[in-house]
Amino acid sequence: MVIIVKGLPCTVYNKTYDNGETFRLDCRTQCTCQNGTYACASLCPQENISPQGLCRHPRLVEVPGQCCREWMCDNVNMERPPNCEALVTPWAECSSQCGLGLSRRMSNANEACKPNNETRLCQIRPCHSPPLVNAKYARHHHIRKGHECKATIKSTIPVRLKFGDCRSRKTFHPKRCGSECPSASGGGGDGNSGNGIICAPELSTTVKVEFLCRSPVEGHDRLDGAVPGDDLWEPVRRPFSATADDYVHSVYVDVEWIVKCTCRRHVD
């Protein structure tokens, strides 16, 4: 006779979860019950990485319609008007379903309390699907049928973010959305299906990434070098020497950071 020992459940805030069950404490924290105890991970990991360098007075701020908070910086040491009421619109969807795109919103989160158009870089998936998963990992990793989109794909090799003549100072392991949804009869590499179902970010945040550029262009004009459809991610193939390669101008740029993707119907 075989005795099967079932793991102990977890009771958290008067709710009981089975052993192995995944649950959320709030929209920023996901936990898993493990034999009577539970372990949690942040769904907004970039909140723990404060921008450095040219970012003055970094602070986390709430964004309407978005769970993850975002880092805000002051460009000059000024105080906001005392009667300033915060007005920040949600970020628009990425302008491209594959390759480099732009996302925009309106915000008065600045010293003068004046509404400004803000722009961030985004990439839901590469257009040509470069090998962001190394060959050894790919042989052992299998995404179950029906989970092609929901199993958000994370790069297992380090990449630099790039646009125009700018490269990120640090390397990253970005996430991307799958190329097809399970309900689609056939899909292409751009993530669109024939029945209007797309694989798109369900949860994302905005991070300030420090880029080193060759030209000293500042402000929104800097993003003029971002070519739609280019690959935002560049696999690291050799050591990066900012001085030797003439990348000497530092600039912080907002970038959408994907946390989780899902299949949903595309709305024009």
Tell me about this structure:
This protein is mostly beta strands. It has a 5-stranded antiparallel sheet, with no helix packed on it. The protein has a 3-stranded antiparallel sheet with strand order 3-4-5, with no helix packed on it. It is built from 1 helix and 16 strands. A hairpin with a 2-residue loop joins strand 3 and strand 4. The chain is globular.
Note the main sheet.
5 strands, antiparallel
Contiguous low-pLDDT stretches (5 residues minimum) are 130-143, 184-189
What average pLDDT do the residues reach? 77
Strand order, biggest sheet?
15-11-12-14-16
> How many β-strand runs?
16
Distance between the termini: 60 Å
Shape summary: globular
Radius of gyration (CA) equals 21 Å
Estimate what percentage of residues fall within beta strands.
Answer: 35-45%
Oligomeric status:
single chain
Structural class estimated from helices and strands: mainly beta
- What's the SSE pattern? EEEEEEEEEHEEEEEEE
Determine the fraction of residues in helical runs and give it as a percent range.
under 10%
Helical stretch tally: 1
